Structures are given as C-alpha cells and as structure tokens.
Amino acid sequence: MTAIPLRYRVPWKKILVSVLALVFAAYLVLPFYWIVAMSFMTEADANSLPPQWIPDQPTLENYRAFVDPTAAQALVGGRAVKETPFALGNSLLVATLTALLNLLLAVFAAYSFSRLNFRGSRVLLILYLVTRMVPGVAIIVPFYLLMRQLDLLDTYWALILSYTTFALPVTIWVLKDFFRAVPRELEDAARVDRCGWFRTMWSVVLPISAPGLVAAAVFSFMTAWNEFMFALFLTSTTAAKTMPVIAANFATDINTQFTVMAASGVLAVLPPLVLVLIFQRLIVTGMAAGSVKG
Amino acid sequence: MTAPAKTRKPWSDTARGYAMNAPALLALLLLVAYPIGYSFWVSLHRDNLAQPAVRKFIGLDNYLSLVDDPVFLCSLGVSALFVLTVVGATVLLGLAMALVLNETFFGRGVLRSLVLLPWAMPGVVNGLMWRTVFDAKTGALNGLLTDLGWIDEYQAWLSSATGAFLLTAFAQVWNTLPFAVIILLAGLSTIPGELYDAATVDRAGPWQRFREVTLPWLLHPLLIVLILETMNAFRAFDTIYVLTGGGPGDATATVALLTVQRVLSYTDVGLGSAYAWVITLITMVVSVGYVGLLYRRGSFEV
Questions:
Q1: Does residue A158 belong to any structural domain of this protein?
Q2: Given a cut of 80, is residue A287 above it in pLDDT?
Q3: How far apart are CA A246 and CA A235, in angstroms?
Q4: What mean pLDDT is predicted for residues A90-105?
C-alpha cells in the first residue's frame, strides 16, 4: 500500500511566492499594456464603455498619423503630431552624443581613480558625487542664462552639455569600479612591452572593461532620453525639441485623441525599452556595482 | 658602465591624476559650479525677465519672503507628504519584490526583465500613461473596478484632492520602483547561504530569519535606496506636471513644480532661484547625513 508520505507538507512558501510573482507581473505590465492596446484602437473603440481590453478592430492609423496625419488628427493633436518625427530624431541624436561625450570625459577620470594613488583623489570622487546631488531646478535658470550668452538656446548642444553634467558623475563612478576589476598583471605586461599609460589603457584596460563602457553608455543615453525639465526650458522649436517635450504637449492639450497620445507614448518608450532589454544584465551589474559599494 | 634600467617618470602620480581629471572637472566647473554660484547671486536680486528695468540687489529678501509665503509653505508640506508616501511605498514594495525575485520559481528570469520596464519609461510618458488609466470617462481603472463590481459608477479620480495626491504618488512609485528592487536584490545576493542554514538549524522561523539574517545585511542597500529615492521624490517633476499640473487646487503642487512655474510662467528668476536654493539646501542636508551614516558604518569605500 502506498501511503501518503508521512511528512508531506503543503508548500505554502512556494505557493505564496508564485502568487506574489503573478501579482507583481500584472502590476508591472498592465498599465503599459493599456497604452499599447490603446495605441492600436480606433477613436470609437477607445471611447467605448466599458473599455475594451483587446482592440476590437486593431488599426495602425494612430502611428500613421505621425507621418501623414488626416485632417482630424492634424487638428486635434495640433502641432504635436507634426513635430513627433523631428522630436524622435532629436532625442536619438542628443542621447547618443551625450553617451559618447560622457564616455570620452569619464574614461580618463575613472582610470586615474582605479590606478593612481594621488593626493585628494577621495575628495575629488566625493566632489563628483556631490555635483550629482544638486537638483536640476537649482541650476536651470543660470544654465538657461549661460546658454543664452553662448547663443546655444534651442540647439542640441545646450541639451548635450546639460545632460553630460547629470550623467558624468555616475559614469565616472561606474567605470572606476569596472577598471579596478582589471587584473594589474595585464597592465604590467603591457608596460614591459614599453606601452605608455595611454596605450595600456587603450589596448588593454578598455577592451576588458567593455561591459562597463556599455553599461555606462546606456545609463547616459537613458538619462538624456528621459529628461524633460531642461528640454522644456532650453528648446523651443523642432530644431531641438525632444520626445518628452512633445509627449507633454500631447498630455496637456485637452483636445488630443487618447489613441494618438498613446501611440506617441509607445514611440517615446521604445528606444530606451529596447536598450534595457538588450543590456539588462549589464545594467543590473552596473547599477548594483555603482550603488551597493557606495 | 651600465646605467640602471631607465625608469621614465616625468610625471608624478598626482600631476597625472589631476591631468586626467581635468576634462571632467572643467566641464563640471563650467556647467555646474558656475551656474550654482550664479544662481545664488540671482536669488539675492529682484529679477524678473519680463521687467529687466526693475532688476535690483535686495539681499536675503527673497528668502525672507518665503518664510511667510503661504503658497510656498503649502508646497513644502505637499512635498514632505509626497516624499514620505512615495519613499515608504517604494521601500516596502521594492523589498517585497526583491525578496520574491530572490526565490526560485517558474518564470523568474521573465519577471526580472519585467521589473526594468518602468525604469525605461520617461517620466513624462509615465504621467501620460497613468492619465489614460485614471481617466474619468474611459480610463482602465474605472473599467476594471466596474468589471470587478467594486464601484457602481465611474469616478473622476483626479479631481478630488486626496485622490489626485494618492494617484500621483502611485504613478511616481511605479516609475521609481525598479531602482529600489535592483539595489535590494544585489544586496540580497551577497548574503551567504550558510547563515540561513545555521538559522534553520537553530529552528528560527521565517520572520526570525528575516529579522536576524536578512535585515542586518540589507541595511546598507536599504539606506541607499531610502536616501536616493528621497532625493528623487523631492525633485519629482515630470510625472506630476503631466498628470495633474499641481492641481486640483494645490493638492499636488510640490516645491519642484512651483519652482518651475515661478520661473517658466512668471519669469521671476530671482524668487525662483531662491526656491531652488531651498531645495538645494534640503537635498544637501540629506546627502551629508547619508554620506555621514555610510562612513560611520565603515561601508563607504572610495
């Protein structure tokens, strides 16, 4: 006779964990699913009561609006619909250049912290951290005036420069940890081969720390892509307006169709989302390294 | 005569260190330090961009006027309440999520990727998304609650002061949660498994294991999450701007939002800079406390 094992216990913990995992997954995905679904709905379907959870007649009209708006869409979405393609291009350019400029500036500083023992290096590191703590609102006005003096208002450069200041301290902190993980022997070997420090850094340290460089670049890209306040202040035309500025126009214009607004939201999330999904492991290590250690 | 192997050392480490930091330092000096200093100078003036003629040095008057400015004081209160709500919820929810993600279960890898989804969402889009969810006429929240039979008729969630405040906080929490989860998860993964085995041998229950093993190891990551989220919530701007614009009334008008309005809508850069400096000072006090706490715990390695 096969008896039930004597010490059989209901796996409460497993059940609890699975249930919680499901709840969390729903919490994370459902709101996003809602705007994605909405972006494929016709205006009538989006306004139907009760709301449709799956679009009845899925349509690409809302996305087509950005390239070729119908009369109605051009009217309700106003300028925002027409400006979206430019804004996407601007965002892409600004975020990419910010990421590159950040790496360029941060690589040297981070390398110096990982290998050189110099007076004041601790103070310098903390100084970088402190600049990160200054809230954007605190410097937006003088920054605006500075950019006006330099005649950079409504250009990419105003944004690239301001985002560089946000991202630079984080980039230096993340890279410094990655550089420190490079075994010293490798560098010594390069030195024996009579490589100067620059050659050593360039051909030994950087290739090994490639994951760190990518993580740092993704960070800066996302910072630049997501930023809104500076973009709102420093840009005024399609020459430099970024996606968040346009998305805010959609949201504050009471005439906007929710469906077109949802489509613009999806477009604005797509690039950072793709980056996050591709580089998730690197991002998680980079983020954890940068903060758990200090 | 053989000369000793030439050790070229034209640069001392210190000189090299500063040379390598020069580009970054120069950028930050010009783009952060100068604006900060200048901002303080502006905050000592009556200065409205719309009326260049009345620009005048007035010392600390802008700051003194804040002490009995009801709008400003109210916004400080709103900010404080907002920070408490958002940080409290983020830490609790983040901790719960990190603990779950630290277990093994079917689909863990997927959930770990999903956690990053809100992080990829720009604040403005986050606000925009929740606007369509909370909408009074066609929103998903109304639809869901009606489907579940929890409410009889559609509610205008964002038009009551309490509703707007709580939902704005909710939207903010959704956006900032991934950061907390990742840091806490990284902290959890450093706890040696033997500690739990030992605790189990000692017949410690789940709650005891959490209190005696998990929590002490998590203190440092928790502290980091606490402080960084505090600063984040204190300057939260984009989600609120899109979701409620500070309303209804001044229910969600935080200091950060008010500062931007003061400068952007009223072009009052003098008073706006004073607002900004109050924010900076509060942030600084928190940061100094943060660094000090970490130093005392000996875990701030540079």
A1: yes
A2: no
A3: 11
A4: 96
Show the tokens assigned to A32.
Answer: 């996003």
In whole numbers, what is the pLDDT of chain B averaged over residues?
Answer: 85
**Any idea of the CA torsion for A257, A262, A264, A265, to the nearest 10 degrees?**
140
Supply B290's token pair: 């943060």
For chain B, say whether A293 makes contact (Cβ under 8 Å).
Answer: yes
A93-102, B30-39, B271-280: range with highest mean pLDDT: A93-102
Q: Using pLDDT thresholds of 50, 70 and 90, give the confidence band for residue A77.
A: low
CATH class of the B73-255 domain in this structure: mainly alpha
Residues whose CB is less than 8 angstroms from the CB of residue A39 and which lie 6 or more positions away in sequence, other chains included: A62, A63, A259, A262, A263, A265, A266
- Please give the C-alpha separations between residue B279 and each of A137, B251, B287, in angstroms, as whole numbers: 8, 19, 12
State how far residue A29 is from chain B, nearest Cα, in angstroms. Answer: 7
How do residues A209-229 score in pLDDT, each as one tens digit? 888 899 899 989 999 999 999
Q: H helices of B189-205, where?
A: 193-201
Integer Cα distance of A94 and A88 in angstroms:
10
Structural domain tally of chain A?
Answer: 1
Percent of chain A with pLDDT over 90: 36
Indicate whether A289 pLDDT > 70.
no
Asked whether the beta carbons of B176 and B229 are under 8 A apart, the reply is: yes
Q: What sign does the CA torsion over B54, B55, B61, B65 have?
A: positive
Higher pLDDT, A134 or B38: B38
Domain boundaries, given as residue ranges, for chain B: 73-255
**Domain assignment present for A93:** yes
Q: What is the residue-wise DSSP string for chain A?
A: --PPPTT----HHHHHHHHHHHHHHHHHHHHHHHHHHHHTS-HHHHT-SSPPSS-SS--SHHHHHHHS--HHHHHHSTHHHHHHHHHHHHHHHHHHHHHHHHHHHHHHHHHHHHH---TTHHHHHHHHHHHHHS-HHHHHHHHHHHHHHTT-TTSHHHHHHHHHHHHHHHHHHHHHHHHHTS-HHHHHHHHHTT--HHHHIIIIIHHHTHHHHHHHHHHHHHHHHH--HHHHHH--STTT--HHHHHHHHHH-TT--HHHHHHHHHHHHHHHHHHHHHTHHHHHHHHHHHHH--
Kindly report the pTM of this predicted structure: 0.88
Tell me the chain A residues in contact with residue B173 when contact means C-beta distances shorter than 8 Å: none
Higher pLDDT, A285 or A120: A120
* DSSP for residue B46: E
Does the residue A60 lie in any domain? no
β-pair partners for B45: B57
Which residues of chain A have a CB within 8 Å of the CB of B31? Answer: 143, 146, 161-162, 164-165
**Bridge partner residues of B57 (DSSP):** B45
Helices B123-134 and A243-252, interaxial angle, to 10°? 20
Give the CATH number for residue A130. 1.10.3720.10
Q: A216 and chain B: CB distance < 8 Å anywhere?
A: no
Domain holding A105, by residue range, is 85-255+270-290
- Which B residues 46-105 touch A at CB under 8 Å? 96-97, 100, 103, 105
- Residue by residue, DSSP assigns A248-287 as HHHHH-TT--HHHHHHHHHHHHHHHHHHHHHTHHHHHHHH
